[in-house]
Design goal:
It is built from 10 helices and 12 strands. The longest helix has 26 residues.
Length: 399
């Protein structure tokens, strides 16, 4: 006998809008067979989407490998048209959903979906931590991964379609029950990838495109026009509308300009032989002279030279001779992650980007002016100048 509590399956069904009676109203009742969801209506070219997004895999794999510091391989995708009910049946109970909707170019819904296990594996690889939890920091890491993927895709999509207005919103990640995922309405495109991160497992990533962006992108890839692409761009190749040449002429308008005629305007309005009367303005014999070919000569620019100080400027430099300037000697530099900096303590050794014995940099107000070698003078450190940076190099550094 049922205790009156809803099962997890019934909760998920209610969240997704499915009638829970189809699952059986009580533990003792028999389940009614679930009705098959209607087939999705395909408004986009699945082949065009699959061909394009698979062509970006090498670039995506390289970017993900650089982010994670390990060899990552992305394979696929397989493209399917699905409805919400059909797609929810393929997902695990908990998923990490990252929304990165297209806001212009091909506007509409665009999101990535990971299983909990795949999201944890990616976050763990990025942070170098084990037994990671899908907290706010992990969601931020997953969002950064998706941001890199979307950026690479947009660059390739712009090159392929010529649409330079493609923009996506900043990725927003959340770990939710699958029934709470904000999937597009109606039928949409689902692209299924396989991700190999070298951990002995193959992880699945789903990329979801709403019907509008999927249709517009596939049309753009196949050279067709879309409802949202190229808004406000006039068609430079509009076809001839089939209107005959007007043959319109404007004879002497009586302005005192005898024999002057306006040439055929070719306006194509089908009104031949149109005449304008003489207006009598009294400017006889006016005509336009033949100007002949235009003589075009290139402009010669002087060579860009290093600015030289004149005598007046050289004399004025004496006014600032007693001004103090900050001089520093730089032994070397390095870059560290925030977590590495926070983990530093007494005894930590920081490796610099210079070799032992290599000249150090001498800077004035953070500008390199010379190089030198470290010496010891009466138990104090000093620097012996070994090379003065050329004025041209200093001038180039100012740019």
């Amino acid at each position: 006998m049922s205790d009156g509590a809803l099962s997890q399956d019934e909760i998920d069904a209610l969240l997704s809008g499915v009638d829970s009676s189809a699952m059986g109203g009580s533990k003792g009742g028999s389940k009614a067979p679930a009705a098959a969801a209607p087939a999705a209506v395909v408004n986009f070219d699945k082949g065009a989407l699959e061909k394009f997004f698979s062509s970006v895999n090498n670039a995506l794999s390289s970017n993900l490998s650089a982010l994670t510091g390990t060899n990552v391989t992305l394979m696929g995708p397989e493209v399917d048209a699905m409805s919400r009910d059909n797609y929810l049946m393929t997902l695990p109970s908990m998923v990490t959903v990252v929304s990165a909707n297209y806001t212009s170019g091909f506007p509409g819904e665009h999101l990535f979906i990971f299983s909990e296990e795949s999201a944890k594996a990616i976050a763990s690889l990025m942070t170098k931590e084990t037994d990671i939890q899908l907290d706010e920091m992990a969601m931020s890491v997953i969002g950064e991964v998706v941001s890199q993927m979307v950026g690479t895709q947009i660059t390739a999509l712009t090159d392929k379609t010529g649409n330079k207005s493609i923009v996506a919103s900043s990725p927003s990640a959340a770990n939710v029950p699958k029934a709470a995922a904000a999937l597009p309405a109606g039928d949409f495109a689902v692209m299924t990838y396989s991700l190999d991160m070298g951990d002995g497992m193959t992880h699945q990533i789903w990329e979801v495109l709403g019907s509008n962006p999927a249709t517009d992108i596939s049309h753009g890839l196949s050279g067709g026009s879309s409802a949202n692409a190229g808004v406000g761009q006039p068609n430079a190749h509009a076809p001839n509308m089939g209107m005959p040449n007007m043959g319109m002429q404007m004879p002497n308008m009586g302005m005192g300009m005898p024999g002057m005629q306006m040439p055929n305007m070719g306006m194509g309005m089908g009104m031949p032989g149109m005449q304008m009367p003489n207006m009598g303005m009294g400017m006889p014999g006016m005509g336009m002279p033949n100007l002949g070919p235009t003589n075009v000569q290139p402009i010669q620019f002087p060579n860009l030279m290093q600015p030289q100080l004149g005598a007046h400027e050289s004399g004025n430099i004496g006014l600032i001779m007693d001004v103090f300037m900050e001089m520093t000697v730089e032994l070397g530099r390095t870059r560290k992650l925030i977590k590495e900096i926070l983990g530093m303590g007494e005894g930590t050794i920081i490796e610099l980007d210079k070799l032992a014995g290599e000249p150090v940099d001498i800077l004035v107000n953070h500008k390199l002016i010379a190089k030198g070698e470290v010496v010891v003078i009466d138990e104090n450190f000093g620097v012996r100048v070994t090379e003065i940076v050329s004025p041209m190099e200093r001038f180039n550094d100012m740019g």
